[in-house]
Amino acid sequence: MAFPxxxxxxxxxxxxxxxxxxxxxxxxxxxxxGGELSTAGDDWQVFPVFxxxxxxxxxxxxxxxxxxxxxARAWEGFPQGAVAIASNGAGDLLVLLPMGTPGQxxxxxxxxxxxxRKCKPSAxxxxx
Length: 128
Prior knowledge:
The chain is of the alpha+beta class. The chain has four helices and six strands; from the N terminus they run H-H-E-E-H-H-E-E-E-E. It has a six-stranded antiparallel beta sheet.
């Protein structure tokens, strides 16, 4: 279930990941931290940023973006420096890939296929 969060929690996740999330994605997290996204052929569970404001938000954000990205980075073939933002529950992930500047992420959402270990651009928009 999606719920709003604050810039403080988003910034904390960025510090832990060592990246700056794209502006549109930051705004989505603040308005709807977590929730679902749909693309042609798949439904995705968005990883929230951890929000310890109270027990309810802490529980809802337990499977957060930092935890899920750290886990994915241990998988063979996961793109170096990528940030996992959602899962389809079948092993595939939506990811943001690093750009040329250290700490910057490309705003284009990519689908990382766990079988082929390759990324392909998604037509996904953050506001959905």
